[in-house]
Design brief:
32-stranded mixed beta sheet; 17-stranded mixed beta sheet; 11 helices
Length: about 1350
Amino acid sequence: MSAEVSCVLLLSVLLAVQKATASSCPDLDPRLKLWTPGHHEDNFVNISRGQELLLASSATVHSILITNGGKLVIKDNTGPIVLRTRHILIENGGEMHVGSESCPFRSNLTIILYGRADDGVQPDSYFGRKYIGVGSGGTLEVHGEKKLSWTFLNKTLNPGGLQEGGYYFERSWGHRGIIVHVIDPKTGSVIHSDRFDTYKLKGESLRLVRYLNAVDDGMILSVAVNDEGSRSLDDSARKAMTKLGSKHFLHLGFRHPWSFITVKGTPSASVEDHIEYQGYKGSAVAKVFKLFQAENGEQFNVSSTSEWVQDVEWTEWFEKPEKAKSKGGERLSDFKAAHPEVCDHPLDIQAVTLDGAKLSTEVLYKSGRDYRFFCRGPEQADGSCRNYRVRFLCGKNVRPKLTVTIDTNVNSTILRVADEVQSWKVGDRIVVASTDYSMYQAEEFQIMPCRACQPNEVKVAGKATYLHTGEEIDGVDMRAEVGLLSRNIVVMGEMETGCYSYHSGLCSFFDFDTFGGHIKVALGFKAVHMEGMELKHMGQQSLGHYPIHFHMAGDTDEKGGYDPPTYVKDLAIHHAFSRCVTIHGSNGLLVKDVVGYDTLGHCFFTEDGPEVRNTFDHCLGLVVKPSTLLPSDRDTRMCKTITEGAYPGYVPKPRQDCNAVSTFWLANPHNNLINCAAAGSEETGFWFVLHHVPTGLSTGMYPPGYSEHLPMGTFYNNRAHSNYRAGMIIDNGVKTTPASAKDKRPILTLIAGRYSPHQDADPLKPREPAIIQRFIAYKNQDHGAWLRGGDVWLDDCRFADNGIGLTLASGGTFPHDDGSKQEVKNSLFVGESGNTGTETMDNNVWGPGGLDHSGRTLPIGENFPIRGIQFYDGPINVQNCTFRKFAALEGRHTSALAFRLNNAWQSCPNNNVTNLHFENVPITSRVFFGEPGPWFNGLDMDGDKTSVFHDVDGSVSEYPGSYLIKEDNWLIRHPDCIDVPDWRGSICSGRYAQVYIQAYRSPNLQMKIIKNDYYTHPLYLEGALSKSTHYQQYQPVITLQKGYTIHWDKTAPEELVLWLINFNKNDWIQVGLCYPKGTTFSILSDIHHRLLKKTEKTGVFYPSLQMDRLEYRYPTKGYYYWDDDTGLLFLKLKAQHEKEPFAFCSVKGCERIRIKANLPKKAQISDCQAKAYPKYAEKPSVDVPMPKKLPATHMDHFVELKVESYKTRYLHLKDDFAYISVDGKKFSLSEDGIQVVVVDGHDGKVVDQMSFRNSILQGIPGQIDNYVNNIRDNSIVVMMSKGRFIAKGPWSKVLEKLGAQRGFKLKDKMAFVGYKGSFRPFWVRLSTDDEAVKIFQALPVPVVKKMKL
């Protein structure tokens, strides 16, 4: 080959390499022309017609338009560039490039968007002001340095605490004497330490002297006393310490706290503290510290503390004693007389009224011990304390404590994280998320140099103020997210120093400028890829102006012809004024590795409803605050103030209309969320909201209801914490119509919405469940998750420290998608984890935990009933779930399973639980049905009264196949039901369904329904619907194959519709409906198809003169019977068709009976109870036998107690039947008298039994008194009588000693379950009657007293 040919080939190769490099690194394109515009705010730059410019230096211009083939490229590998402009518009073939995907930009670029909203500059009609805009045909390629966007703490960060590289030493009892540490001044590390017991051993003084003499000069010495070190201390040791620089050691006294730090050989470097011992009731502390510099130039701090610590605790609350006088204040001696446990010298006193209002207290000391206190508050005149409770802070005996710390990170902290963070640079800023209830515990830090740090460690300036968890706690990953805020490419708005109103009233909500910059991408753009950017001070408090906004851009992925697909990746958006990333009318966008921090309004936001196939992958949002933009963005004050678009007379209801600002706001379920974290919002982490029809510019993009049935995209491995309302919500829609006289609310306020996913969004096609997998929700104040809809299924999820872990809701009255179910399986629920939080002003509630009573942050109120899963309506399925650390206190009804508070809706008997596991959950805290009082109010709403769920395998109750019901629901009780007093519930068996009773053309009525076999226990229902509806609906749960009567507190309705709910084929009940005499009826049956909204008449009911004819019920024909004497219309309600397992209605539709009544004029109240009974009374019976109790497999279990005594008659013969049964073992009396059985309160085993016969002992109470006195404490004592027992004598003394309430009166029959011990358990019960008594209970063992709140 000739030399000429070789040269040509070489030149060709070089040109090819240069061309390839230029194509990957846009600033190396040789066609670019250097551009130096200088600094001129009136310079309107137009880059077009083939201009290709390279910006290599800072510049200020008015604006930049890149169009018609123009190109602007930012030069890399140069000094920092600051480009200041009002806006940049890229359109019609224009391009702007900052690096490329294969050649990231490595220098520093800052684009500052400047201008005020009121500066008179005409805004662009589409893009507005202060923007980077990409219009049709425009290209924006921004590719900054590749950095890890966010990770997790891998080591807990303590508030102000010691981190890696330091030393911590602590001792208390058992380590008395003088403790010495020898510290290397070059490194700050401890070389050696030793303890010298100069209290007990005389030879220890000599050993101490020799030890000190052996230490090299220049070494740092930390010396301190723990407990006592002076008793055997001789002069040689005292003088040796004095030589080192001590001034107090020479005269060290008994138990004196003393701390000393010095440099051996330099006495003048010494620091020392000393204090005399204050006695066993007083704390005392001697503390010193000294700062040193290591040989590497970094500082470290040595501190030593010698102290006597007095721990304190509050007493329980005491009500004002009877002898206490109000005049002149309250005397402590009166309280001590009534409650000897009150300490002599309280450190603090708190008082509240009986209603819970706080009172301030003022203490008057007198004679050192006996003193008074005064109450200051409303209705507490002259310092008197009326109608109040009080508690005292008492100090325990002191204990010794010695600590030595060496902090090698003075005013700095080492953070250990989960990933390598070598891409993070010195000077970068990071944010560490809160791991407590308040999102405002997120903290920012700046990275410092650290030569000793490992690849997954960074050193930051300053100390943490709050606890940030860096570990898995109780099975839940609670590691704090750590987000990088700094990038080498910055786009930011230039801000004013304070707020100015560019919208009316804006500055009444914010005290800072909110008119930032924004980036907007329009339909028809050619290419947009953004990564490695920092967006700061972006967004505006006006619609359409957000940090990043894809506006009506259509399909942005391959479907739209984009190759590579459009993305925004590795961005930090912080201190922003309007959202983070907004996707509006755009599909297929990839949003990955984006951190959104400290922003106003929904952070990651899909807008109108048609947005689909967008993916949020590994995105982090935290500290998301309210905004004025939309009703859902607004807080309560904004909601009440901003009523633009409302109809005159609109009265905002903030909790219903607004109050929904969320980190991820999904207006369409068909989007993907993977590996994302919602780490703190004023309201919610993830909110799926439904648009019945698209709104705004997207109107008409899909038919009504389409998004409500659209299958959910992927939701996998996401987490939410530190949110006020909930970690996640699937519920609600937005109002899609303008305000009107009929509905005065403005458009886009929150309204009801129901999600029911189906294949192809067609409700007539098969269901396609929404799968929530590996979701973590912790430290959310109200809910971990509230999910309403059809098939919404959770798998392998984790919930901890939420007010309520999970609520699954269907439709309240009917499931919106009948036949669907919701389920949670293979998941973990933790009530109160080891993450106790930090006691600060940011945590509104601090109080005792349930398990150990130690202090912790609490979700809502100190007495709020924390719940794991909350049953609402149903049907739901809970399977293979574990509940951990749910423990109630007296005054706080914590439970693993519970029911929605103040529930007006139906409760489905098809709520099933299977294979549940309980760890550190007392059996008394597994379930709670509620009781009147705080949070539960009167517990008198319809759903409160009908609570029920099915314990399929007995893993909750120990009775497989049982139903757990509210203890006073006599519609579904039977004689063998077993009460669980601690749950306020009962364990029953049976076949249950529901009857929906819709009353039309009547005023609001109270309905009374009575089961014939318990006619003295009616159930009153108010109706589930609001009083303004045109009909009312009552939704009782009933026992099948039973008879009932229904009555009203006013005249009966003219029209009733009875729906057979959860009836299977041939299931029936008989019902008698009360009507005024003279009423005539028209009764027919039909089937209503709710989905198709079609009704088909199926039959007619004809009158009959005989009750027996009701049995002849055919698909097209039935009979009714009118009892003129009682005013009851009798029908037999019998299902004609099969139903699917979880359906409320049959496969044909909802079977109904319609009754039209022609009422006589001036009809009276329709309450026939007095005439109906005992005529139609039935004897209580058990149709489904109670399941056998499972054998106890854990120490914490139930003991089944049955006590029964009643008179029997057979012809002329009379006898009594009585027995006591303990876990199936019966104890009976052959003669009249009293039977006593004693059960060990530790393990539930029978330890003794005794019979007292009337025929031998006339003074039975005295005999039993002696017997009871000899029973061991912590014993369950069961008694029953047979025959007419001798009720005279000291019975009250005997039974009151075992917990019976005072004032009882005994009758012929008695059953009693009592307790011998130091407290009265809630389950103590006395039943006495002339004919029959009965107590069936499941009692928890071991018997443990609940700690008080």
